[in-house]
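RNA polymerase subunit sigma-24 structure dump, as promised
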Amino acid sequence: MDDKTRFFNHLRPRLQAIAYRMLGTVADAEELVQDVWLRWHEADPEELDSAEAWLVTVTTRLAIDRLRAAKVQRTHYTGFWLPEPQLTPEDGPASPEQVLERADDISMAFLALLERLAPEARAAFLLREVFDADYAEVARALGKSEVACRQIVSRAKSQLKEGRLRQAVSPDTHYKLLSGFAEAARRGDFATLQALLAEDAELISDGGGKVPSFGKVLRGAARIAQLYLAVWLRAGKGQLSMHLELVRLNGQWGLLRFVDGQLESAQGFESDGARITRIHTQRNPDKLRRIAEAWTVTTTGGNAS
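structure tokens r here:
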């Protein structure tokens, strides 16, 4: 491996992290980083003022272009478009990419929230607020002035302010709440399910037009609890088997639900520390494939069914 390749591989986790947060899917992020590698392979590092800045700039600009195209395509998407979740280990990061990640900056809720931003605003916000780039770096990546980038980031923060949690919830508190919810779902305990949900809780589901999902936000503790109860009732009548696993999804505790031995959904949860306020349910089989494959490897010889 030559020095040029080693340098790129050293920065690959950062480039991958930028691309994933911009595009919301692992495959698109990996494809983009591969395109960056091809451009890097043709470049002469000695002609660059900063090789790292060049790589971040190329990654950012390619991601902006691809996100613009993706947003056009997503206008024809069936139902809600939610990001592709990733499994993260319980005992610490398993890859260099995850070393860079803070749970609140990679969560399903945060990635879904980023969909509110236009591509350039999303890039500027991520570089500045998540990757701690200074405004000179942001300006270089976007090809704009520092003053313009400050304005873009400021507007982006205002756009996202309403959707971000007002208070941080500790992982232990989140885990205990979700454990109680999962146990109630396993027992079909409607009263407990409803009690653990905020009265104005929301459930947002992505089926991608390939499996049934709600075309609108499902609101209210009772309605959401009824949905979980319906799955339990079907399992109890032998129409299907249902199995729940607590896992870390995008750095936070979430649930995998298996139906008849197949991964049916990956569910991310937001809470205020006392009750669940929002659930993001990814049901699109294309966006579950990597988790299903990783789970099969992890549980070989185990009981994931």
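Residues 183 and 189 are 8 Å apart (CA to CA).
lmk if u need the other ones
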